[in-house]
UniProtKB/TrEMBL annotation:
In the N-terminal section; belongs to the PRA-CH family. It is found in: Cytoplasm. Keywords: Amino-acid biosynthesis, Cytoplasm, Histidine biosynthesis, Hydrolase, Magnesium, Metal-binding, Zinc. This is Phosphoribosyl-AMP cyclohydrolase. The keyword Zinc applies. Coiled coil: none annotated.
Amino acid sequence: MSLDADIASRLKRDADGLITAVVQERGTGQVLMVAWMDDIALARTLETRRATYFSRSRQQHWVKGETSGHTQHVHSVRLDCDGDTVLLEVDQVGAACHTGDHTCFDADVLMGPA
C-alpha cells in the first residue's frame, strides 16, 4: 500500500517524515486526540477507513482499537492549507484516550469559556 503521488507531493513532513493528525468526532465536533502519521499510515487510513497512526515511542504503526476495541471509523480526511496536518473526522467507539477518557482533552482545563 503506497500513498498517492499527488497527495504525497503536497505533504510537508517534519524531520522524521511525520505529519500531525488531529482527530475530530463526527456528530459532536469534539477533538478527540492528536497523533502522528507517516505516508504509510495515511495511505492505510485512506484505503481502509480504519485510523492508522505512527507511534514515535514504539517506532511502529498502530491501528486505533486493534488491541483495545476502541476503534475509529474514518469518514473524511482533510489536508490543512500548509500541508503539515490532516484532520480526520471519525466515529469513535469507546474511549479515544489511552487513559480511558472519551477524549485526550478531558483532564486539564487550563482556561474555561469566557
